[in-house]
Amino acid sequence: MIVKFQEHPFSFGAIIRIVVSLVAVYLIWKASGILLVILISIMLATALFPVVKKVNQKLPLGISALLVVLLLVLPFFLIGATALPSLISEFPDLLKKVNSLLNDSLFLPESLRNIDFNQYVERGGKYILESTGLITHIISSAIAIFVLTFFLLVDSERLTSIFLSLFDRSTRARVKSLLIKLGEINGQYIRGNLLISLICGVIIYTGLLILQVPYAMPLAIFTAIFDLLPLVGSSIGAIPAVILAFSVSPLTGFLTLALYLIYQQLEGTVIAPAIYNKALKLSPALGFLAVLIGSSLFGIVGAFLALPFAASLPAITDFMHDEMDDK
Questions:
Q1: Three-state DSSP class for 323?
Q2: How far apart are CA 286 and CA 277, in angstroms?
Q3: Of 9, 35, 122, 133, which is least surrounded by CB within 10 A?
Q4: How many angstroms separate the most distant Cα atoms in the chain?
Q5: No. of helices (H) and no. of strands (E), the chain
Q6: How confident is the model at residue 133 (pLDDT cuts 50, 70, 90)?
Q7: Distance between CA 204 and CA 195 in Å, rounded?
């Protein structure tokens, strides 16, 4: 019995395509930092574009875009100029209170009660001081995001027309409709998320003041910043406030915990649905899965971008199905 093997032609073209694809994937992965900056800038420009158009009714486009971008940067500048100096000066006293609280907590295991946060803070401070390259990269990336956002707002119409010119005339109308849908989803998410974070900071700050929890302003700002992260941000932001409240008294600690739990329910059932207006049509399970995948790939930034990306998938898949049906 003679076994015959079917011979396949040796295709240099197939090998070249495979090599080019692998090189392209590698280059995209190496340039993921730059692509992430571009993606964040596009999302911010999309969210700010309606505001710029309204301001543009009375002012030139360039001035309108500059004012809106400065308005976005201003809160971060004010936080850095006002809250950070007081937080840095009060941080050693805060660490002492946390350490004393852990040492006196009988319900915690001995391994946790003996933790000295001062050692970890000193190591972290030395690492930050030695990591000048990391700090420079973060600052330069932030500046690049705001500058690129400004130029995207100014040249939005020209860039959109250039992008649409890459497609056939029969497809351009559908691509433009897809871009409008994606812009609406992303814009409503970004604007809504910033507004929800502001509401969170105000409510938590007011509650901490009423409960007489020390360092109410830094704790509220910390909570508001982490509230930008979907689903899990407010829970992470509650940790330092609850720990510090228990250092005041057990009653203050439980009341602070109740404050955060009540606000989380209020945000999830009333505030977020009213602000997002069903822009993100995602089940909690899919949303949580998207946040997990995004955070595992790109950290905090990935978690922030996960929900609008996941909410955009139905519009993208509908567009692809329509294109396949036409062909």
A1: helix
A2: 18
A3: 9
A4: 92
A5: 14, 0
A6: low
A7: 14
